[in-house]
Structures are given as structure tokens and as C-alpha cells.
Amino acid sequence: MPQELSRQLSRDYRDPHTRLGIDLTPESGSGASSFLVQECGFRHYENWNHRGIRSPYWRLHHNFEAGNSVRSQGSEYALNPDVVVLIPGGVPLDTLGRKTVPHLWIHYLPSKEFLLAMRTPVVVPTDTATQAALTQLRNLFDEGLIENSQRMHHLSKAVLHLVFARLDSEAFLAFPDRLLPILEHIDRHLGEDLSTPRLAKLNGMTRHRLTQLFQKHTGLSPSRYVADLRVRLAMQRLAATDESIEQIAEALGFPNRYYFSRVFQKQLGCGPATFRRGQR
Question: Does residue 17 fall inside a structural domain?
Fold first, then answer.
């Protein structure tokens, strides 16, 4: 029997890693979905003019014709038909609807692996594959097929993956060695005390030094980083599991359901129960 054939027959095909391809396990995180898609929409907006928008979720905007834009922190980003614009959560923006144009949007939450280093809108040029997926999404609305939510869900995720695949690696957050174990500890112990004094003591640094480290590399204080992560994971659990609100609150380190509801309401403008109903 040829040696190569013998090796193939003896291989354990239960192992997905053949060593012939590229191991992408580190890019898949803990196995959670890369994106929680919350909404996809398409309209011919007649008056797309809003000021002072700041959302906890992320946005993708695409216009099929030129004319409109978004503005953030003094800079304007044109929504031309050959680009999409990504707007990370918490970034303030104004929408400038000078014309009535066909407009598609996706509201979503990325997993931690997809967090961007930028604190501004990001303009991403589209390619043929991305344009095709965007057009397929538009066609679902044009042809009245919006009840096919599974198809819309997968197409929305396809668009997000295609867009994020076009970003340079420098666009994603890269944390220093001093910060990585702290973030990993937070990920593993979300149900425990993650106050700034506790984190500082565990990692042998002052509260001031810890806060400086977080501000420099995440743009957030330690307490805000933890709170945002807890709310983001709560949104994922509310949308994807049947856990009770009490169970989610306890698992993610909120002292009780009522405190969890107040924090959730403050960030999203609605309570956990209302949010869950909107996802079903």
C-alpha cells in the first residue's frame, strides 16, 4: 500500500486539525457567535436627519446611491455606493440625509475578537462579494421576502464577515502583555468581584496605574470596561438562551435582577425583558 494512502487511512478524522490547512481556532474565540445581529433594515429615507445619536450597539450603513453621509466628532463620512461605514458602539454621530436614497443598515454586536481600536466611524471599501451580499439583502425587502428571517440573518452575518475580513490587522485592538492577563481574568470571572480596587490588588498595581492602563488601551475605565462587557454578554444571552433574567444577572456578576435591569435600561433605553421580546 502506498505510504501516503496508509497515512490517510490511519488519520483520526475526529480531529478537525489536519495540519495541512491553517488553524483558525484562535480566531474563533470560545465558540460563541462572532456577531449578534439585532436588526437589518432597508428604506428609501426621505428625511434621514438625526443629531446626537449614541448607541450601545454597533451599526453598519450602506447606501446604494451617493448623496448622504454621517458626521462624527467634526469629520464627515460619505455613504457612497462603493463603501460601507461601520460605527462602533458609543461613537456619537449625526446623520445627514440630503437626498432620498436606498439605504440599508445592520445593527449588531461583535464578539471581543472583532473589537476595533478606532473610536470613530470606519469607511470600508466593498468588493464584488460584499456588493453581491448587500444586493441580496436589499432584494429580500424589494421582493417582499422579509418573513424569511433565517435567510436575512445569515446574509447579514455574511455581509459583516466580508466587511471585517477587509480590515487590516492593525484595525483591531492589540493589548500589551501587562493588560492581557487582566482581561482574561475578567472574562473568566464575570460573576465575581471585579471592582477596580480588587483588580488592582490581584495584579499588583495601584488603582491609578490600572486605570491609566485601561484608559490608554481600551479607552475606558476598568469599571466601565467590565460594565460594558457584562451588558454585551447579557444581550447575547437574552437573545440566544432561555436563561431567566435572574440567572443571567447572577452569572454576570450583577447583585440582583433589579440592579441588572437599571444598568441595562441606562445603556440600552429598555429593560432586559423588553429587549428579549424584541429578539424573539
Answer: no
For the whole model, what pTM was predicted?
0.69
> Cell triple for residue 110?
461583535
* 115 within domain boundaries: yes
Work out how many domains the chain is built from and give that number: 2
Ordered mean pLDDT values, 10 residues apiece, the chain (280 residues): 50 56 50 72 87 84 94 94 91 89 90 68 95 96 82 93 88 79 89 95 94 88 91 82 92 94 87 80
Closest CA to 275 of 247, 229, 226, 234: 234
